[in-house]
């Protein structure tokens, strides 16, 4: 049996930009992506702690060290600059493998990894 489990999580990062005129996605600082094992094009689920919105999109790699968390396209309507969001990705794995799997989680300060 295969189940879906949490693979990666950026906990409580701050939205730095919302670009309604881009065609979609979330731009994430490459340092943040590396810290939790996320890659460009990966599907992510986003929870906005300020307004309760929950949505999904895909990642675009942002400039390394920039702290960039930019919601693009329609997702830009679900956030305000300064909102705190949680960004999560999941992976399908065998039930037995999932029992011992440990997700990669980061708690960035000011959108930067210490």
Account of the protein in words:
By secondary structure, the protein is mainly beta. Helices cover 11% and strands 47% of the residues. The chain has two helices and eight strands; from the N terminus they run βββαββββαβ. Strands 2-6-3-5-4-7-1-8 form an eight-stranded mixed β-sheet. The radius of gyration is 14 Å and the shape is globular. The protein starts with a strand and ends in an 8-residue tail after the last strand. The model has no long low-confidence stretch (mean pLDDT 97).
Number of strands: 8
List the total number of helices. 2
Query: What's the helix-strand series?
Result: EEEHEEEEHE
Shape: globular
What is the strand content?
A: over 45%
Summarize the structure.
This protein is mainly beta. It contains two helices and eight strands; from the N terminus they run βββαββββαβ.
Summary tags:
8-stranded mixed sheet, 8 strands, mainly beta, Barwin-like endoglucanases, globular
Helices and strands, with pairings:
Layout: E1 2-14, E2 17-19, E3 25-29, H1 30-36, E4 43-48, E5 54-62, E6 69-72, E7 84-94, H2 95-100, E8 104-106
Parallel strand pairs: 1-8, 2-6, 3-5
Antiparallel strand pairs: 1-7, 3-6, 4-5, 4-7
């Amino acid at each position: 049996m295969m189940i879906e489990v949490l693979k990666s999580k950026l906990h409580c990062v701050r939205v730095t930009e919302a670009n309604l005129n881009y065609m979609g996605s979330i731009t994430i600082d490459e340092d943040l992506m590396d810290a939790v094992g996320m890659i460009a094009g990966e599907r992510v689920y986003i929870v906005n702690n300020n307004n309760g919105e929950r949505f999904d999109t895909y990642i675009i790699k942002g400039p390394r060290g920039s702290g960039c968390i930019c919601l693009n396209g329609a997702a830009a309507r679900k956030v305000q600059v300064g909102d705190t969001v949680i960004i999560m990705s999941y992976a399908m794995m065998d039930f037995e493998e999932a029992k011992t799997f440990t997700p990669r989680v980061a708690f960035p300060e000011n959108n930067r990894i210490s």
